[in-house]
Design a protein that fits this description.
Structural class: alpha/beta
Number of strands: 16
Helix content: 40-55%
CATH architecture of the largest domain: 3-Layer(aba) Sandwich
CATH superfamily of the largest domain: P-loop containing nucleotide triphosphate hydrolases
Largest sheet: 5 strands, parallel
Number of domains: 3
Bound molecules: adenosine-5'-triphosphate, magnesium ion
Distance between the termini: 32 Å
Strand order of the largest sheet: 2-1-3-4-5
Length: about 475
């Protein structure tokens, strides 16, 4: 990410210049300032990150940080300090500093910290961009997503939605089959009529026929009144056969006849009723297999599967996850009366890595749950459901996640061994290491427990254990 603008604020001209040279060698543009006030007074183009000295005359690091965060909360600030005490660093982190460097620091430490800060900055920018996308896409057919897989599917659907062709929608549970069926209806010539759905899986086999075709009074025990079936209600509109694989064989036979002849009779009646309806069907089963096993009529299968489309599972279109997350955040914000604005980049990374066996419905529930248990304005890692965090803790995922923000580092939780046996204060890094080691010892190496003790999310704890080589 070369050519990005960085600010360096330090009253020591030698160090200021050194940092400038090191960063310019990496291809960054650098502007330097001798203290916080000069920096704020001469602020022009927004930088992508700021290196800020802690002790400076006129306006010191802490006060400058406060002012920067008020106006530009998204710009990551790295504190540069020669002060070794935990308090100062903790204070700065609490005010929203992204990282800190203790003087004298290694060149590589400086470069890595800047690179990570820039990564964080660009992710925050991406989240903002996605929020705008959600706004822009709202009011469309309600099917959100910017993945190639979804675009291919929607292009295919677009070709058929205005025809009369029956469409069979295939896909795992929670992938959006019903949503797609409704969208097809809305964009079809049948949209003026009703969208009538019948969930074959939710109706006992013995009642399916009458539910679909209706019945005449007295047609069977319990038929105290005549009843209009769903098929009749869908006249001029769309009939959506949800979980069509669960339709009982009798009803299948009668429905096939309707598709061939376009008329039917209510149960217990001989009067022919003619209707015009578009038929859409959906299933998460392998319907062809059901045909092979004799559970589904082959001739009916070919009738309803004139145009089969498969919605890919969410794990095969992970690019859609951020957009969907922002959408659900907006969707439930008012319901819960909690003004959530965003999802922390690291949390978003966890959400993107999870395989989502329950697809979009599960994602929706996860966001809803996180919004209930956490406080606005940002959904952070600890508020995510356990199974998502557990999944992310596989070593492979943890490594990817560790690329992200170290914001969650909470040095104030360090309690033991802040000094050596001679009473001398230990370097900050050592205090942190001692704290982690102590928690691990106390919990006999149980990472989830140790993380809980320190009030850190598991993934942060795991990452820190790796960093200090304690695992
Ligand atoms: N692309 C999408 N954009 C926005 N919301 C979506 C999208 N896909 C699904 N959803 C939402 O996810 C939830 C589940 O979708 P839906 O009920 O259509 O799935 P389904 O495939 O019919 O599931 P099942 O097989 O369990 O019946 C709904 O709240 C739906 O609005
Ligand atoms: Mg459904």
């Amino acid at each position: 990410m070369a050519n990005e603008l960085l600010y360096v604020v330090d009253d020591d001209p030698g160090l200021r210049e050194l940092i400038q040279v090191l960063l310019e060698e990496q291809g960054y543009r650098v502007l330097t300032f001798e203290n916080g006030k000069v920096c704020l007074d001469h602020w022009e183009e927004d930088p992508s990150a700021i290196l800020l000295d802690m002790v400076m005359p006129v306006l010191d690091g802490k006060e400058t940080l406060k002012k920067i965060k008020e106006i530009h909360p998204d710009i990551p600030v790295i504190m540069v300090t020669s002060v070794q005490d935990v308090e100062t660093v903790v204070g700065a982190m609490k005010l929203g500093a992204y990282d800190y460097l203790t003087k004298p620091f290694e060149e590589t430490r400086l470069i890595t910290s800047v690179e990570k800060a820039l990564q964080q900055h660009s992710l925050t920018g991406r989240v903002k961009h996605l929020e705008r996308e959600v706004k822009r896409l709202k009011g469309g057919n309600g099917i959100l997503g910017n993945s190639k897989a979804l675009k291919v599917l929607l292009d295919k659907v677009h070709k058929v939605e205005s025809s009369k062709a029956n469409v069979l929608i295939l896909g795992e549970s929670g992938t959006g089959k019903e949503l797609l069926a409704r969208a097809i209806h809305e964009n079809s010539t049948y949209s003026k009529g009703a969208f009538v759905d019948i969930n074959c899986g939710a109706i006992p086999e013995t009642l399916q026929e009458s539910e679909l075709f209706g019945h005449k009074k007295g047609a069977f025990t319990g038929a105290v009144d005549s009843k209009v079936g769903k098929l009749e209600l869908a006249d001029g509109g769309t009939l959506f056969l949800d979980e069509v694989g669960e339709m009982d064989l009798n009803t299948q036979t009668k429905f096939l006849r309707f598709l061939q002849e376009r008329y039917f009779e209510r149960v217990g009646d001989h009067q022919k009723i003619k209707i015009d309806t578009r038929v859409l069907a959906a299933t998460n089963r392998d319907l062809k297999k059901e045909v092979e096993q004799g559970n589904f009529r082959e001739d009916l299968y070919y009738r309803i599967a004139v145009f089969p489309v498969t919605i890919p599972p969410l794990r095969e279109r992970k690019e859609d996850i951020p957009l969907l997350c922002m959408h659900f955040l907006k969707k439930y914000k008012d319901d819960l009366n909690k003004d959530f604005q965003s999802i922390a980049p690291e949390a978003l990374r966890h959400l993107t890595q999870y395989p989502w066996p329950g697809n979009i419905r599960q994602l929706e529930n996860a966001i809803y749950q996180a919004m209930i248990i956490s406080e606005p304005p940002v959904i952070d890692v600890p508020s995510l459901p356990e199974d998502i965090l557990d999944q992310a803790e596989s070593p492979q995922n943890a490594e990817a996640i560790s690329q992200f923000s170290e914001k969650e580092l909470k040095p104030e939780q360090a309690t033991p061994s802040t000094s050596n046996p001679d009473g001398e204060i230990l370097p900050y890094e050592e205090v942190i290491k001692n704290t982690l080691a102590n928690a691990l010892e106390k919990t006999h190496g149980n990472i989830p427990k140790a993380a809980k003790e320190l009030q850190l999310s598991r993934s942060t704890f795991y990452r820190m254990v790796k960093k200090y080589d304690l695992g």
